[in-house]
Specification:
The chain crosses the membrane at residues 210-231, 288-308, 320-340, 380-403, 423-439. One of its GO terms (biological process) is GPI anchor biosynthetic process. Keywords: Membrane, Transmembrane, Transmembrane helix. One of its GO terms (cellular component) is endoplasmic reticulum. This is Phosphatidylinositol N-acetylglucosaminyltransferase subunit Q. By secondary structure, the protein is of the alpha/beta class. Helix content is 54%, strand content 14%. The protein has 15 helices and 12 strands. The protein has helices at residues 107-112, 129-141, 149-171, 173-176, 180-202, 207-233, 236-261, 272-295, 297-309, 315-329, 331-354, 377-426, 430-438, 472-478, 492-501, and strands at 4-9, 18-25, 33-41, 54-60, 75-79, 83-90, 93-94, 100-105, 361-363, 370-372, 447-451, 461-467. The strands form 2 sheets. Strands 7-6-5-4-2-3-1-8-12-11 form a 10-stranded mixed β-sheet, with helices on one face. The chain has a two-stranded antiparallel sheet with strand order 9-10. The chain starts with a strand and ends in a 7-residue tail after the last helix.
Length: 508
C-alpha cells in the first residue's frame, strides 16, 4: 500500500463522542486506498439501522474514548481545535501515520449538491474518491419520501388526467406530427408527465424539475402578456385582415422579382427562351398558390382564432401555431425553390458527367471511380454539343436558383428561430440560476483542496476540501430537463455544400 487517504467529515467537530460509521476501500487494483468517515453515533443501538459498519471511535474535546480492540476497528480519532488521528489499524496491523493523508471535507455540501454526483452513478470501479464518498453519504443521510395522503392523491389525479390525454394524442401522433402545434402539444404532455413522476419519486423540487416548473409558469405569463397586447391593439378580424394584407404584399413583391428576372437582372443578358419559360412557369405557380390561399382562407381564419385562444396555454403554443401558419403562407416559396434547385442540380450533374468526355473517361458504377473509355467521333460531337448547350443555359438557371435559394434560406431561418424560441422557453434556467446565486452549495460540481499548516499530527499531510465556484454554463447544461430533446446544431458547411451542388435544404 503506497498511502492511505482518510476522509473526515467536517461536521464531526459538532458531534459528541461515539462510534464512527464509515467504509474502507480495500480493492486490490486501487493504487491509493481510502477510508471514508461518514458520521458518528453515540450508542450501539443507533447502529442497527445502518448498513455501514463501525470502523472506530471518535472523541470530542478530550472526552474519554474507549480503545475498542476489535477486528473491524480501523481508526481512533479525536478533536480538540483540530482533528487528530491517534491510530489507524488495518487487518490488525497498525499503519504509520506518515503514510496517511487526511482530507477534511464539507459533508453538508456534498449531500446537498445535486450536480456533484450523476443520477445514474453506481459505485462500480470509480476512481473519483469524492464521487464515491458522495455516493455513500447520500445512502447514509437519505430520508424516505413521505407524502401526505392528500398531497399524493392530488399528484396521482393530475397524472392520471395528463396520462390519458398523452395516450390519446399518441394514437393520432402520425396526424399530429404533420403540424408543429400537434408535435408541441404532445411533447408538452410528455414533459408534464415527467415532471409529476419525478416529483413523486424524489419527494422534492430538484434543479431540473424546478427549472421546468418555472419555465412553464413563465411560458403562461408571456402568453397572457402577448394576448393582452393583441387584445388592446385590434380585434381578431382586423388582425387577420392585416396579416392577409402583408401576405399579399409579399406575394406581389415576389411577382415583381420574377418580372425583374425575366428582363436583364444586374445587367446580365440571359437566354431569352429559357428565361421566358421559367419566369412564366414560376408566375403561374405563384398565382396558383395565391388562389389556393383564397380558397383555404376560412381554415386560416380558424387557425388564427386558435392562435388567440390556445395562446392561454403559453407563448410556446402561440409560436407553434404561428409556425404552422407561416409554413402554409410560405409554401409557394418552397415549391418554386424545389423546381429551381432540381433544374440547377440536373444541369450541374450533366456538365460534370459530360466533362469526362474531354478526358476520355467514363463513370464506373462503383462509388468514386472512373474508367478510361475511347469515344467515337459521333459520341464526342454529340457530347460536346450537349455540354455547350448546358453550359450556356447555366447562367439563366443559376440566376433563378440563387434568388429562390436566398428566399428559401430566409424562410428556413425564420422557422429555425421559431423552433429554437420554443425550445429555449421550455428550458429556461430560472430556478437553477436563483439557486446558483442564493444557495451555491446546491450546485457544487467540483471540490477545491487546500493544505493546512501547523497541525499537531507530525508527518501527516492534511487537506481541507471545500466547494469550488461552479461555472454557470456548466450548471445550465446539467440542469436541462431530461425529457426535452436538445435541438441539433446547424451544420453550415453541409448546408453550403448542398447549396453549391443543388441539393435541397431543409428547415434549420
Amino acid at each position: 500500500m503506497n498511502y492511505l487517504l482518510v476522509f473526515i467529515a467536517n461536521s464531526l467537530k459538532y458531534c459528541k463522542s461515539g462510534y464512527i460509521i464509515g467504509i474502507y476501500n480495500d480493492e486490490k487494483e486501487e493504487a491509493c486506498k481510502s477510508l471514508f468517515i461518514l458520521g458518528v453515533k453515540s450508542s450501539i443501538d443507533n447502529l442497527k439501522t445502518y448498513s455501514y459498519s463501525t470502523i472506530g471511535y471518535y472523541s470530542n474535546n478530550n472526552e474519554s474514548f474507549a480503545n475498542i480492540q476489535r477486528k473491524n476497528t480501523f481508526i481512533c480519532l479525536s478533536y480538540y481545535n483540530e482533528f487528530i488521528v491517534n491510530s489507524i489499524r488495518i487487518n490488525n496491523e497498525f499503519i504509520k501515520l506518515s503514510e496517511c493523508h487526511i482530507i477534511v471535507y464539507d459533508d453538508r455540501t456534498l449531500i446537498k449538491s445535486e450536480l456533484f454526483l450523476p443520477i445514474d452513478y453506481r459505485n462500480d470501479n470509480e476512481q473519483d474518491h469524492f464521487k464515491s464518498l458522495t455516493y455513500h453519504l447520500k445512502l447514509v443521510k437519505q430520508q424516505p419520501v413521505n407524502f401526505v395522503s392528500v398531497h399524493l392523491k392530488v399528484i396521482l389525479f393530475f397524472k392520471f388526467i395528463i396520462e390519458y390525454a398523452y395516450k390519446l394524442t399518441s394514437k393520432f401522433y402520425r396526424i399530429l406530427s404533420l403540424t408543429t402545434i400537434g408535435v408541441h402539444y404532445h411533447q408538452s404532455l410528455e414533459s408534464l408527465l415527467w415532471l409529476l413522476e419525478t416529483y413523486r419519486k424524489d419527494g422534492k423540487v430538484t434543479l431540473k424539475t424546478g427549472n421546468y416548473l418555472l419555465a412553464v409558469i413563465s411560458d403562461l405569463l408571456l402568453g397572457y402578456i402577448v394576448l393582452s397586447i393583441l387584445a388592446d391593439y385590434q380585434n381578431s378580424t382586423d388582425l387577420f385582415n392585416l396579416l392577409a394584407l402583408h401576405t399579399k404584399h409579399i406575394v406581389h413583391s415576389i411577382e415583381l422579382t420574377i418580372n425583374w428576372l425575366m428582363g436583364s437582372p444586374w445587367g446580365v443578358k440571359l437566354n431569352y427562351p429559357l428565361n421566358y419559360i421559367l419566369g412564366n412557369f414560376f408566375l403561374y405557380n405563384l398565382q396558383l398558390w395565391w388562389n389556393f390561399l383564397g380558397i383555404v382562407r376560412p381554415l386560416l381564419e380558424v387557425s388564427f382564432f386558435a392562435f388567440l385562444k390556445l395562446g392561454v396555454l403559453g407563448v410556446s403554443h402561440q409560436i407553434a401555431i404561428a409556425a404552422d401558419i407561416f409554413s402554409v403562407v410560405s409554401f409557394h416559396v418552397y415549391c418554386i425553390y424545389i423546381y429551381a434547385a432540381r433544374l440547377y442540380h440536373w444541369q450541374i450533374s450533366g456538365l460534370h458527367s459530360l466533362s469526362r468526355i474531354f478526358l476520355g473517361r467514363k463513370r464506373n458504377p462503383e462509388p468514386g471511380k472512373v474508367d478510361s473509355c475511347p469515344y467515337t467521333t459521333e459520341q464526342l460531337f454529340v457530347g460536346t454539343i450537349c455540354f455547350t448547350v448546358l453550359l450556356f443555359l447555366l447562367p439563366t438557371t443559376l440566376v433563378y436558383y440563387t434568388v429562390f435559394t436566398l428566399m428559401r434560406l430566409g424562410v428556413n431561418i425564420v422557422a429555425g428561430i421559431m423552433s429554437r424560441a420554443r425550445y429555449y422557453i421550455q428550458i429556461l434556467p430560472l430556478y437553477s440560476t436563483l439557486v446558483w446565486i442564493l444557495y451555491p452549495e446546491f450546485t457544487t460540481t467540483t471540490m477545491k483542496l487546500t493544505p493546512v499548516n501547523g497541525l499537531s499530527n507530525a508527518g501527516i499531510v492534511t487537506l481541507t476540501a471545500t466547494r469550488a465556484t461552479t461555472n454557470w454554463c456548466d450548471m445550465y447544461q446539467r440542469c436541462k430537463p431530461d425529457v426535452i430533446k436538445e435541438l441539433p446544431q446547424v451544420n453550415w458547411r453541409e448546408i453550403g455544400w448542398k447549396i453549391l451542388v443543388g441539393n435541397l435544404i431543409y428547415p434549420l
